[in-house]
Write a structure and sequence with these properties.
Belongs to the IPP transferase family. By secondary structure, the protein is α/β, with parallel strands linked by helices. The protein has two domains: 235 residues, P-loop containing nucleotide triphosphate hydrolases (Rossmann fold, 3-Layer(aba) Sandwich), CATH 3.40.50.300; 61 residues, Histone, subunit A (Orthogonal Bundle), CATH 1.10.20.140. It contains 14 helices and six strands. The protein has a six-stranded parallel sheet, with helices on both faces. The longest helix is centred in the last third of the chain and has 26 residues.
């Protein structure tokens, strides 16, 4: 019998963390964070990291596990989170994966294949020579012939990704698309709860959240991280951090970076919607601040039916 897993997804600021805690309270669960930036220590305000008070005593995993100078990947998340699911399940508790990083959720719930082969630098150098001698369009056309679907996903200017896709094909004999499409089976019996909100209401919540972050000390948090880690680390490319750097470096006014942060957060929410609606089998529930409690009752009822179903 496959382990049962609940996942709660949706755009930023929609209320995922709050619902995740309440689901765990009702069904004796533990939260696994599916957020690519909450893994970093010291990045609390800009990532809207759940506070100890908000956790209400519910264990939260995959938070504060990396230094901002360190990199992190979907493949590493997949490995660590699967170990956590096995552990949580073995203790008779319910794993509840909460987050807005679509690739992380998809790679965890499905048998999503990441290339485990080491980089073949001979192939890479040969592809780089092709790029230098024939140009980026010729390289992209080569990708179109061997992996048309991946070629559609990668712009010709993104030569790094083009080379990586071609390297996978030349070293494994299968395309990146074939490897990923193989991952439609799952090792879990899962249910994905999606929270959505009227766009105007959501954008207002995002703007309010950004204002609250600033009041809570976001600029000081970014300044401290910038001094310790520099602007080039993976963590400092996150929304909420990269926008503040020009202000700290004297290249933009505070009003300008604040508006840029709000705009980028709204755009990110739109991309999150697109990813979840196109890539994952989500059961969507539209919420507002006024109807959240009412919808929560419906969600909990639906989850009870799922968890008590003995199939699979």
């Amino acid at each position: 019998m496959k382990p049962k897993v609940v996942s709660i997804v949706g755009p930023t600021a929609v209320g995922k963390s709050k619902l995740g805690v309440e689901v765990c309270e009702v069904f004796d669960g533990e939260v696994i964070s599916g957020d690519s930036m909450q893994i970093y220590t010291g990045m609390d305000i800009g990532t809207a990291k759940v506070t100890e008070e908000e956790k209400k005593g519910i264990p939260h995993h995959m938070i504060d596990i990396k230094d901002p100078k360190e990199g992190f990947s979907a493949a590493e998340f997949q490995e660590r989170a699967r170990e956590l699911i096995a552990d949580i399940t073995s203790r008779g508790k319910l794993p509840v994966v909460v987050g807005g990083t679509g690739m992380y959720i998809q790679s965890l719930l499905f048998d999503y294949s990441f290339s485990q082969n080491p980089r073949d630098m001979d192939v890479v150098r040969r592809l780089e020579e092709k790029l230098e001698n024939e140009g980026k369009n010729a390289l992209h056309q080569y990708l179109e012939t061997v992996d048309p679907a991946e070629a559609k996903r990668i712009h010709p200017n993104n030569t790094k990704r083009v080379i990586r896709a071609l390297e996978i094909y030349e070293t494994t004999g299968s395309t990146k698309t074939e490897q990923h499409n193989g991952g439609r089976e799952s090792s879990y019996n899962f249910k994905i709860i999606g929270l959505e909100m009227n766009r105007k209401l959501l954008y207002n919540r995002i703007d309010q959240r950004v204002n609250s972050m600033v009041t809570s000390g976001l600029v000081e948090e970014v300044r401290s991280l910038l001094e310790r880690n520099g602007p080039q680390s993976q963590a400092m490319q996150a929304i909420g951090y990269k926008e503040i750097i020009p202000y700290l470096e004297g290249g933009a006014s505070f009003e300008e970076v604040l508006e840029t942060l709000k705009r980028n957060s709204r755009r990110y929410a739109k991309r999150q919607y697109t990813y979840f609606k196109n890539k994952l089998p989500v059961d969507w529930y539209e919420v507002t601040e006024e109807t959240f409690s009412e919808k929560k009752v419906k969600i909990l009822s639906d989850l009870e039916g799922f968890l008590h179903n003995k199939e699979k």
